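[stage:ingest] chain + small molecule (adenosine-5'-diphosphate)
[stage:ingest] validated
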Amino acid sequence: MGIGGLLKSLLPYVLPYQWLLVATLALTFVGSLMAQVNAVVLDRAVDAINDLLHLEEGFQWSDAARILLIVSLVLLGKEVLAAVITFGQRYFGEKIRINVSRDLSLRVVDRILTFRMAYFSADGNEPGKLQTRIDRGIMSLSNTVKNFFIDILPLFTSAVLALVLMFAANVYVGLVALAIIPVYFWITTVQGHRMRGWRHRVFGTHQQLNHGIMNIIESMGVIKSFNRERVEAAKQAALQEQSTDQQMQTRRISFIFEGLKTFVEQIGTVLIIILTAYLVLIDYPGMTIGKIMYHVLLFSNVSAPIRQLHRIYDDLNDALVYAEGFFGIINAEQEVEKSGEWKVTQGQRIEGRFELRNVDFTYPSGTHAIRDLSMTILPGRTTALVGLSGAGKSTIVNLLDKFYAPDSGTITLDGVPLSQWNTEALRDNIGLVLQKNHIFSGTIEENIRYGRPDASFDEVVEAARKAYIYDQVMALPEGFASNALQLSGGQQQRIAIARMFLKNPPIIFLDEPTASLDAIATEQIKNSIDAIKQGRTVIVISHNIGQIIDSDMLYVLDTGHVVQSGTPSEVYRQGGLYKDIFDASARSMNVDKIADTLA
Ligand code: ADP
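[stage:predict] done
[stage:export] tokens:
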């Protein structure tokens, strides 16, 4: 993305504030005029005082006082006006920046909420990376807006005006001032090139340091249990050392170039003083002694923006890098769902028969998870998916919930292809309980109510009872108002199940729902799931043989393909993978000894 592209992408976000923009620009222009007042006033004052000094009859103190009074009044008046203008200009400029930053955030949130799950599992779209792209993007884009309207424009308008005034007073002095500018630009560009590599290195090390510290905090238990505190500290020390070196290096380069630029600026000032003094001495038309001050002050207005050039150049380079990542998210068109072709919309009653025919699916990361898979999920029945880890069981649930679309083959629900189902309508009908369920920061009540936002408190309580979590919630000091994140993994699991009870959907997907529960809780959950199963379409994924043998139908998967199917007892009699899994499971549970103990 070039600067043109960057500004073009930003334009739609700045345009809504066009009146603010016009006001800011108008103030900018007036402010730039004000910036030249000092030079003009000093020029006149010096000349007037000089004239007084050379009066043959000697000067009157009252005349001198009059000059000084006018100078004071003009300068003070100008300062007051300039303060008001600067305030207005900064305030409006900031207002634009803050509003643009808010609009960019809202837009990106809107966008990512519409993306398919595939987007989030694509390489480079991991949560941390997305977050960095969004954060950095918004920060540097809104900075670009600020740089442009609050910093660059006023400074450059003032520089151009000052240059015009210098030329108007004397072409030669104007030319000298103008000649310094390319030298400045050249030094800034060289500085930019020298700094760029370093800045990226500093940024990279900084990210590594942050990541390292996060890692230490997250792995504290492991670090302590292995007594690896010193190893971790040494790793950090090495990174810190590197970071210190890099920072010093960038500072060194930066100071050298800043010094160089100040030197060039001083040379410019000296040249202008010499030239103006010479012109005054040879009595060049229009060149009075006041012009020496005049030109020096104007020249400092010319060089002021150029001194800032390097910072703005850096910011702009950053913005170009981050804008690409940021607008990449906003413009990821292909990820958005197409609406308008839906045959099934919300509110329709559903039967709950899924048919999968020759489905193939590959994750965006390249894992070919489902291969030529066909199966029927009977309505009102419980179907179990069995297979070793990584066989593709969860992927099937992902496909049925339309989190991902298959590469080929068809999936229908009640005879209608999933692609023609209104996604919201589909998901309204599905309850999903995963092995690891997400608990939002907030109260237990809020977390359960996520299943149905308009549920009454009594309904929330009822759902908690069905999920066997009610007693434990009531034992907490704040009951349902307690923070849900303080619950144990097993308790959080039951909050997720309560959420599903509240939603009360006709189709239920259970992906290892009891994997993190203790034996008592597992039994309680099993009972309540048995109760809710009645008359609903249920798909259960479990390593728990006890849950599998209760199913009406069973599909055994191996590397994304169905290898066996039928009722649990039929499939067991066939032998094969299911029998292997079943027998291994029974052996690992020590079924013989359990039977002896129970006898
Ligand atoms: P199961 O549920 O049977 O353990 P999964 O359906 O989770 O198996 O995984 C099937 C295959 O797809 C595995 O190889 C797994 O590594 C891969 N996989 C699962 N989820 C993702 C994902 N979000 N992105 C990329 N690959 C994935």
